[in-house]
Specification:
Blueprint lengths: L12 H24 L6 H30 L10 H32 L4 E2 L3 E2 L8 H36 L13
Antiparallel strand pairs: 1-2
């Protein structure tokens, strides 16, 4: 049986929707990104690259909206706990937000430098961030992957901490971001 949290202890429904939508999109983009890089050159690979770019630009836009929402809507108070856990949680959250922006921007910069314009959903051409420069593209390319793996590690840490709070501490922390009625 889970504890019932007071209404003020939960995030609002908009913040919850942003959290889960971005979580699903980021996981999907990560899976597609790791899969597509191993494919031989083909139409399927090109389609997956385009989908990956669209997902990245959507993640970037939603992250901006999510940050704006977070800055204009006070989150629920942090639960009591050891100081080191509170510092760790804030650090992980800030790094995740940083990577929500850095990964798509680095991917966009790589595409631009490689000479491949990002065209969102096949209809909205975005301006190139950089001039075409193959050498620069090759120096940017690994950063996109490294940052994605760093975000994956932070996501694992974030999920592990949530599960620890739920199953070990039994403090109801996971219920703050549970979809459903607030």
């Amino acid at each position: 049986m889970s504890p019932t949290l007071p209404r003020t202890a939960r995030y609002d429904n908009v913040a919850i929707a942003f959290h889960w939508l971005l979580a699903l999109m980021i996981i999907g983009a990560f899976i597609v990104g790791t899969y597509m890089t191993g494919l031989p050159f083909s139409m399927q690979r090109l389609k997956l690259y385009n989908w990956h770019k669209w997902a990245g630009m959507t993640i970037l836009a939603l992250s901006a909206l999510r940050l704006l929402w977070r800055l204009t809507h006070r989150p629920p108070a942090e639960p009591a706990g050891p100081h080191w856990q509170q510092v760790a949680a804030k650090t992980v959250h800030r790094l995740m937000y940083l990577l929500f922006f850095a990964i798509p921007l680095v991917g966009w910069a790589y595409s631009s430098a490689a000479g491949f314009q990002v065209v969102v959903f096949g209809v909205l051409p975005l301006p190139n961030l950089l001039d075409t420069d193959k050498a620069l593209a090759e120096s940017i390319k690994p950063w996109h992957g490294w940052l994605a793996w760093a975000l994956a590690a932070l996501v694992v840490l974030h999920v592990a901490a949530g599960l620890k709070h739920h199953f070990v501490d039994r403090d109801g922390l996971l219920h703050r971001m549970r979809p459903g009625r607030a």
